[in-house]
Amino acid sequence: MKKLIINGIVQGVGFRPFVYNTARKLELRGYVCNSNAGVEVIVSGSEERIQRFIERIRHHAPAASNITEMEAFELEEVHFQDFFIKASENSMGSTLISPDLSVCTNCLQEMFDKDDKRYAHPFINCTNCGPRYSIIKDTPYDRKMTSMDRFRLCSYCEGEYTDPQNRRFHAQPVACPQCGPKLQFLDRNLKPLAGDCIENTIDKLKAGYIVAIKGIGGFHFACDATNDAAISKLRDRKNRPHKPLAVMCSERNIGKIVHVSDEEMKLLRSMAAPIVILPQEDKIPISRLVAPHNPTLGVFMPYTPIHYQLLEDNDLYLVMTSGNVNDEPIATDEKELIGMADFFLTHNREILNRNDDSVIRTGSSQKVILRRSRGYVPTPLRLSFPTIPTLATGAEVKIAFSISHDKLLYLSPYIGANNSKKVADFYDETVAKYRHWFKIEPEIAACDLHPDFMTTKYAESLGLPLLKVQHHHAHTAAVMAEHHLNEPVLGISYDGTGYGSDGAIWGGEILYVEADRFDRLFHLNYMPLCGGDESIKHPDRIAFAYLYQSDIEVGIPPSISDLEKKILTKMTDSGNYHQTSSMGRLFDCIAAMLGLHCSVTFEAQAAMALEFLCQNTIPENSIVYPYEITDKEIIVLPMIKAIAREIENGVQKHKIARNFHKTIISFTLEAAKKARQKTGINKIVLSGGVMQNVLLLENLMAILAKNHFEIYTSAMLPNNDGAISVGQAMIANYHFKERNF
Ligand code: ZN
Ligand code: ZN
Ligand code: FE
Q1: Is the N-terminal amide bond of 140 cis, ω within 30° of 0?
Q2: Are 280 and 297 a contacting pair, CB within 8 Å?
Q3: How high is the pLDDT of residue 325?
Q4: Most buried one in 19, 108, 262, 631, CB count within 10 A?
Q5: In 339-469, alpha helices (H)
């Protein structure tokens, strides 16, 4: 007789019924249940059959599950009549919540089958698919604890729900047209309209209207992605002039608009169904306004039965963007969106936990997570050492917190991008939920070093022992946590904004990192940043101040007005500015000098333009501009001067952009080698928002590898501020543990 302890995503995904059926087929006896340690299986029978049983679990587990660990222990024989599923005990909590799962092929087959009981049912699901995280009120995961509790199972559904052989056994959101939630189609004043909801929606979308569609983690604004006027209207209403929008279309149409490899197709089709940013095909039917001046396009597949019904029988390409007001959290109730949409496709299954779409960018070898949310949360990160119950509050741009205890760390969904009241409320509410669900009462806290962040103030208000962590130290530690690195490393953190220990704004950093200590080995030379956060929206002002302070008289962005010049000159002369070593700002400066984006409406807009100019390549014959590396600094002024001269000489912009990238790679390698020499450390961690530039990231990794560095970068977490709380939590644990807290 054996006891198996199985960990990973094994709860709420049909794992227990699978184990049950497998055991029964092999005529084994015993039971399966959820326990604190994971899924627990007690199995009795011949040794040979038990081995076959283990093999089948390893290789044929349900599609949505993911076994990360399976341990087997020998037990003394106890007699069981047969094999059964043991009811869950209430004490567990932690591993019980599955992410939301996209609708599976079995359910789709039924939905499109005219003779099926659930033909055209917009809420079809099974143990392998459907909403999970977004409908949970409390743990343990059980129908009573979800927003499905108000829908009473009909006898047909009840029969399936209670039959261990059925693929809907204990599928908590199970429903049918008779007993399940109902769709509604509403006008702009939320008055219900007659007719078929799906047909109505398709008609209105084709006619150029904006329809707010209730999804899994919140509403989307949908409109026809081939219709310029509809997209302009949507951009106006969302106050989002340029930021790229994502497109959803049927699987057969995806290849018509973007290049997609087999690997990327797998990702698009995965249970998480994220938005994947891919290179656009030539001559696509999509409006230029969807992703202006952008050679890539974010696409995703239908992932709910409703999406499939909208897109299966036609060739619609839909802009699907988070249904929210400005940077507020994604809306879960149509009332929040009055005035924004022309029509609403909604229903009465409540969304209890907001959850934006996840976004991933792929390069030729790297996969960069830009946002980790729907489909991934709340799957915990497994840590290499046990933590004290910890709450780490994150930063300010891509707000997300982490809560950890023992070897599990839960990173929250994407909360928002500003510090408005609504974002703060959503933050509060989600922290409270995570504490409760995962039964973690924080004993220590961590936050950013920046004194003004909402998340810093939140951490201070907790009244717990608190560690304020330098931003790039935390970025590096987040990657270390993911890769279970507990030894000293070199950390290259290239980023937009991070508060430095000296009060300056850091962001071009090469660090030595050891647990809760770090040493700043090299950084970009300080440049003036006049006017704080507002200046970040005006790369031309950044460029002007850089150039002015360095006495460079050429390359000045033509967009700068005389008045701006006067103000910036005065601010620079009087020392009225912040010092910055930010790599993000250096990108902004060069982009503005090239006249790419003199002002920006979303984060990294100018830096992205500079990357796109390179057209995915840094050819051999690109030039390295001059720079200098001193004891502590990477002096980039000679490079800026050289670029100003090249602009003056009419050198083509894309060449300058490529040379600029090559120069960054070159000085990074040189500084990394010096750092290795100084410390004897060969492990190098790449982090920070600038690493979302896959051209830079992949070329940098290639050359570091050639020079025998051991390279680590994030694979499962964002490398931007979305995962900075993970690093904060790690560092706080090193810190408080060493002090025998
Ligand atoms: Zn299904
Ligand atoms: Zn039913
Ligand atoms: Fe950052």
Answers
A1: yes
A2: yes
A3: 86
A4: 19
A5: 421-437, 454-460
For the chain, which ranges sit under pLDDT 50?
A: 90-94, 740-741
In terms of C-beta density within 10 A (0-12 exposed, 13-18 middle, 19 or more buried), how is residue 725 classed?
buried
At 90 the pLDDT is 46
**What's residue 92's pLDDT?**
44
CA dist., res. 642 & res. 662, Å (int) = 14
For residue 489, the Cα-to-chain-centroid distance in whole angstroms is 25
| Burial class (CB within 10 angstroms; exposed 0-12, middle 13-18, buried 19+) of 303 | buried
Ligand index nearest the alpha carbon of residue 725: 3
Q: Encoding tokens for residue 273? A: 């169904």
- CA distance to 215, 293, 350, 357, 429, per residue, from 322 (Å): 10, 21, 17, 8, 20
Amino acid at 364: S
Res 597: pLDDT: 85
pLDDT of residue 738: 67
Pairing of strands 359-362, 367-371: antiparallel
CA 146 centroid distance within chain: 25
Please choose, from the candidates 35, 32, 15, the residue with its C-alpha nearest in 3D space to the C-alpha of residue 92: 35
Q: Tokens 């996840």 map to which residue? A: 358
What is the token pair recorded at 312? 């299966």
Q: What is the Cα 315 distance to its own chain's centre?
A: 29
Contacts of range 660-664, beta carbons closer than 8 Å, 24 or more positions apart: 660/590, 660/610, 660/625, 661/611, 661/614, 661/618, 661/622, 661/695, 661/696, 661/699, 662/618, 662/622, 662/623, 662/624, 663/624, 663/625, 663/627, 663/639, 664/583, 664/696, 664/700
Residue whose entry in the numeric block shows the structure tokens 């047209």: 177
SS (H, E, C) 385-414: EEEEEEEECCCCCCECCEEEEEEEEEECCC
CA 644–ligand 3 middle distance (angstroms): 28
Both tokens assigned to 248:
């959803």
How far is it, in rounded angstroms, from Cα 179 to Cα 152?
6
CB 460 within 8 A of CB 466: yes
C-alpha torsion 263→266→271→276, nearest 10: 60
Ligand 2: distance of its center to the CA of 314 in Å? 29
User: Residue 342: which of 249, 197, 234 has the closest Cα?
Assistant: 234
Task: Calculate how far, in angstroms, residue 109's C-alpha sits from the geometric centre of ligand 1.
Answer: 9
CA 290 to ligand 1 centroid distance, Å: 32
Question: What is the 160 CA–ligand 2 centroid distance (Å)?
Answer: 9
Which strand (E) or helix (H) includes residue 368? strand 367-371
Judge whether 170 and 127 are in contact, CB under 8 Å.
Answer: yes
Q: What is the CA(471)–ligand 1 centre distance, in A?
A: 42
Q: Are 693 and 656 in contact, with CB atoms under 8 Å apart?
A: no
Query: b/e for 457-490, b at 16 or more Cβ within 10 A?
Result: ebbeeeebbbbbbbbbbbbbbbbbbbbebeebbb
Q: What is the phi-psi region of residue 435: left when phi exceeds 0, alpha when psi lies from -120 to 50, beta otherwise?
A: alpha
pTM over 0.90: yes
Helices within 26-167 (DSSP H only)? 47-60, 105-111, 155-161
| Rounded distance from Cα 156 to ligand 2 centre (Å) | 6
In 313-385, which residue ranges form alpha helices assigned H by DSSP? none
Give the integer Cα–Cα distance in Å for 643 and 649.
10
From residue 184, give the alpha-carbon distance in Å to each of 193, 216, 219, 220, 304.
8, 16, 14, 15, 16
How far apart are alpha carbons 188 and 340 in whole angstroms? 8
- Chain centroid to Cα 413, Å, comes to 8
Instruction: Quote the CA–CA distance of 597 and 558 in Å, as a whole number.
Output: 11
CA dist 619 and 630 (Å) reads 28
Residues in the chain: 741
Q: Which of 645, 644, 628, 624 is nearest to 636 (CA)?
A: 628
